[in-house]
Amino acid sequence: MELKEEYINKPESYYSHKRVELYPFIPEGINRSVDIGCSNGSFSYNIKNVFNIEEVWGVEPNYFSANEAKSKLFKVINSGIEEAINELPKCYFDCVFFNDVLEHLIDPECILKKIKENITKDGFIFCSIPNILHFTTLYSVVINKDWKYENEGILDKTHLRFFTKKSIIRMFEECGYKVITINGINPHMNSKLRILNFLTANRYEEMKYLQFAILATPII
């Protein structure tokens, strides 16, 4: 099955997450934003109202999700970011959102470098990225000696890249960004990890997070 078909066969819920767990980390004062991989527009439609964002764009390769998003957002481009980036206005957006998107790209570094042209002088990039060091993944690899792709989650079969907190920071810095904050989100851990963290003064704290939320700004 081709990668395009994998996206088409995703369950409807895959394209309708509102991502309210990200709200505490979204900066105030956004006037114009673009949501890369906006799915059906639920996330951006809600933050438009919560954060009083004047103009919200979306980019979404899935035809059906993009059509639904068009009824919610100011403008939606139905294509991958690799093509859509040439249609986005320069120096225009206060914030570019990449929620669980960069791991799906063949060359996320290239996109991060190019998208800087579309961000205002004091603008931001806001991302959420899965954490490959989550204890469930490590347990599967180290204990079960297995690497099994799934339809959703950290080992989603449509993920092309995998990240740790350290590699996320390095990627942004090498692409010409200053990471303002990086926060673990969606914590999930069992009793064994709690004990391990207690005995090691939280050395393995980041293993409990399914994802990281990142706020970064281009270095001029």
Q: How do you describe this structure in short?
A:
This protein has 220 residues and is α/β, with parallel strands linked by helices. 28% of the residues lie in helices and 24% in strands.
According to DSSP, the number of beta strands is: 7
- Report the biggest beta sheet as strand number plus sense, adding barrel if it closes: 7 strands, mixed
The rounded Rg comes to 18 Å
* Beta-strand residue fraction: 15-25%
Quote the distance from N terminus to C terminus. 43 Å
CATH architecture: 3-Layer(aba) Sandwich
Which fold name corresponds to the CATH topology? Answer: Rossmann fold
GO molecular function, one term: methyltransferase activity
Organism: Pontibacter fetidus
Pfam families: Methyltransf_23 (PF13489)
InterPro entries: SAM-dependent_MTases_sf
Characterise the protein shown here.
This protein is of the alpha/beta class and about 220 residues long. The protein has a single domain (about 5-220), classed as Vaccinia Virus protein VP39 (Rossmann fold). The protein is built from eight helices and seven strands; from the N terminus they run αβαβαβαβαβααβαβ. It has helices spanning about 5-10, 40-50, 65-70, 80-85, 110-115, 135-145, 165-175, 190-200; strands spanning about 30-35, 55-60, 75, 95-100, 120-130, 175-185, 210-220. Strands 3-2-1-4-5-7-6 form a seven-stranded mixed beta sheet, with helices on both faces. Helix 5 (about 110-115) links the parallel strand 4 and strand 5. The radius of gyration is 18 Å and the shape is globular. The protein starts with a helix and ends with a strand. The model has no long low-confidence stretch (mean pLDDT about 90). It holds the Pfam family Methyltransf_23. One of its GO terms (biological process) is methylation. This is Class I SAM-dependent methyltransferase. InterPro entries: SAM-dependent_MTases_sf. Keywords: Methyltransferase, Transferase.
